[in-house]
Design brief:
The chain has 160 residues and is mainly α. The chain has helices at 2-18, 31-36, 46-70, 78-100, 104-128, 130-133, 137-158.
């Protein structure tokens, strides 16, 4: 029975690592606002975001899960925890400022913040576990792409 309990604990721990990343998806997205924007030629179709962010969030959760499994949450450095929290908050804030407040500028600012803290998170994770770090690669790339896209959307929608 011990083995089953251990597997259940591992599954629950992974779910606990994963679920928070999807909280911003509970915020209604104003598609009318999004559709009213001028979008650059390299804007992917809407389904791309759902797929790419789901894969990315699973990767982040795996990375966190590995770290907690190798150490414990309490033994992780405060710098890692602070970076993870700041990155998480900025990541979640994008949906609020862009889709709810309709601010392409604040959307861009949160993208920059997310990307920068994503790089710090990558570095913090690399100092703790090489295995865990590789799961953050999609996050770094998607955050960079989102920042470029967000900047472009801001610029082309504010220029006369």
């Amino acid at each position: 029975m011990e083995r089953g309990d251990s597997s259940l604990k591992k599954i629950l721990l992974f779910i606990i690592c994963l679920i928070p990343w999807f909280l911003s998806s509970l915020i209604p997205i104003d598609l009318n606002f999004y559709n009213s924007l001028k979008l650059p030629f390299f804007t992917p179709p809407p389904i791309f975001y759902s797929i790419a962010w789901t894969i990315t969030y699973i990767g982040i959760a795996i990375s966190i899960y590995i770290l907690i499994s190798e150490c414990t949450w309490t033994s992780l450095p405060k710098s890692y925890k602070k970076t993870l929290l700041l990155n998480y908050l900025l990541n979640q804030l994008f949906t609020v400022v862009f889709f709810y407040l309709h601010s392409t500028f604040l959307g861009f600012v949160t993208c920059i913040g997310t990307f920068i803290t994503c790089l710090f998170l990558y570095e913090e994770t690399a100092n703790l576990s090489e295995k865990s770090t590789k799961y953050l690669n999609p996050y770094v790339l998607l955050s960079l792409f989102a920042t470029i896209l967000s900047l472009t959307i801001y610029i082309i929608n504010t220029l006369p």
